[in-house]
Amino acid sequence: MNLPSLYQLSQEFMEASAKLAEMDLDPQTVTDTLEGLQGTLEVKASNVAAFTRNLEATAAAIEVAEESMARRRKAIEARAERLREYLRLAMEKTGISKIESPHFATTLKKKPPSMVIFNESLLPSDYMTDPPKPAPAPDKGLIAKAIKDGCEVPGAKLSETSDRVEIK
């Protein structure tokens, strides 16, 4: 059974309600007609809710897979780094500085000197950076609590939002 869209069913229900209210029908006929339309609407809404839960489950499964893949990637990167260090040590130990193969060349190279700060307090201020301070931001939780407690907060108000759909 291929049902019309939920939007179409909602429109039909509203139109039928308005038409039935204008007609001179007994209350049982109006109730039966609206229940029939409501049943179709509820079937479609149930299907949409089930599909929504399916999408949410798929998204959750993807999130788990992403986490698993990230752990695997990190493990592979760590293994590659250990092998690179193993190769470096072997080349240094044997005095070999370059190995050629048809696919790539492996070369030992000197690293550039690294900067070591052993006592930051001795550094002249010219060598220090001043990170910009973060701009002040409204504390929405604190403002909402103040308004709920009856305080007036200039420039802010609580706004009623639309309902949300909860699928249990």
- Structure annotation, total helices: 3
Main sheet strand line-up:
1-2
For the termini, the CA-CA separation is 25 Å
In which range does the helix fraction lie? 55-70%
Number of DSSP strand runs: 2
> What is the averaged pLDDT score?
86
Tell me briefly what this model is.
With 168 residues, the chain is mostly helical. 56% of the residues lie in helices and 4% in strands.
Structure, explained:
- The mean pLDDT is 86.
- Helix 1 runs antiparallel to helix 2 (27-94).
- It contains 3 helices and 2 strands, in the order ααββα.
- It has helices at residues 6-22, 27-94, 140-148; strands at residues 98-100, 105-107.
- Strand 1 (98-100) and strand 2 (105-107) form a beta hairpin.
- The chain is elongated.
- 0% of the residues are buried.
- The longest helix is centred in the middle third of the chain and has 68 residues, at 27-94.
- The two termini are 25 Å apart.
- Strands 1-2 form a two-stranded antiparallel ribbon.
- It is 56% helix and 4% strand.
- By secondary structure, it is mainly α.
Tag the structure with descriptive keywords.
single chain, 168 residues, mainly alpha, two-stranded antiparallel sheet, 3 helices, 2 strands, 56% helix, elongated
